[in-house]
Write a structure and sequence with these properties.
Layout (H helix, E strand, L loop, with lengths): L3 E5 L3 H12 L5 E5 L5 H16 L4 E5 L10 E4 L15 H18 L4 E4 L4 H12 L6 E3 L1 H17 L6 E2 L2 E3 L5 E3 L5 E2 L2 E2 L6 H22 L4 H15 L4 E10 L5 E12 L2 E5 L6 H18 L5
Parallel strand pairs: 1-2, 1-4, 2-3, 4-5, 5-6
Antiparallel strand pairs: 7-10, 8-9, 10-11, 12-13, 13-14
Length: 307
Amino acid sequence: MCMTISIIGSGKVGASIALNCGLRELAPKINLIDIIEGLPQGEAMDINHQLSVLGLDSNLVGTNDFGVIKDSNIVILVAGVGRKPGMTRMDLLKTNATIVKDVATKIAQHNKDSKLIVVTNPLDPMTYLALKITNYPRNNVMGMGGMLDLSRFTSFIHDYTKLSRDSISAMVISEHGEKMLPLIRFSSIAGIPLTNFIDENQSNEIYEKTKNVAAEVIKLKGATVYAPGNAVAVMTEAIVKDKKNVMPLSAYLDGEYGVKDVCIGVPAVVGRNGIEKILELPLNDFERKEFESGVQNVKEATSILPL
């Protein structure tokens, strides 16, 4: 299948996504779209120069024309304002809701059946908003948060165990925010439970660091760029190559986990048809309480969205 990918938002994260998709040669044509004149064109040129030296044949096209979305199999929505030091993701709610509503309206005008990956924060409410505005089937719309949280969780597991990242299997669910839930109990190294390698204090430290590290990165360098760029490319690759990967992402729940009418992080099978299956984990009492707390946070945010 000949793929075209469109990325809306050409800031640091959008450009990082474009580069990561290009390095994987996920599509012959990758559109980089922004309302700022010159920005997507410049980023596309810069990335094409790198891909050329590497002998990679994905071609980046920078444009201010949303009309190019019409031929896209996958649309990635990155447009919005990023977090500043000291801000939570929810602090961005009203500003980014206005932007996402406008962009999602344009997406629906130009394309009726693409797969849509949402990256804009606060991630779960913005995924819900994009789903409702586009009126896409729920399997077509997913939010990136869980894959980014997972990359951080895995990194801390490596730091504490000093074992290869390649051997680590982990999972993070719930809100992409202060109520995210790194699942120590469902994590392992080469199939051996993670708790065989770390003690309870280390487990608690990994749990808390995973939840709070994004704010630390933003304080130190102003934004998170490379990890989200890679996370979105991994999701995109699963769709393009029909890989049936199991990964955490923000999905619309309609009864799964006893929850309805909310987008929140859960494990799912991702392939050519988007979210092909949501996997329900047998959560214990603590995990269930934390998950439901995340659901409540997201529902409170979605209640004030401009739908």
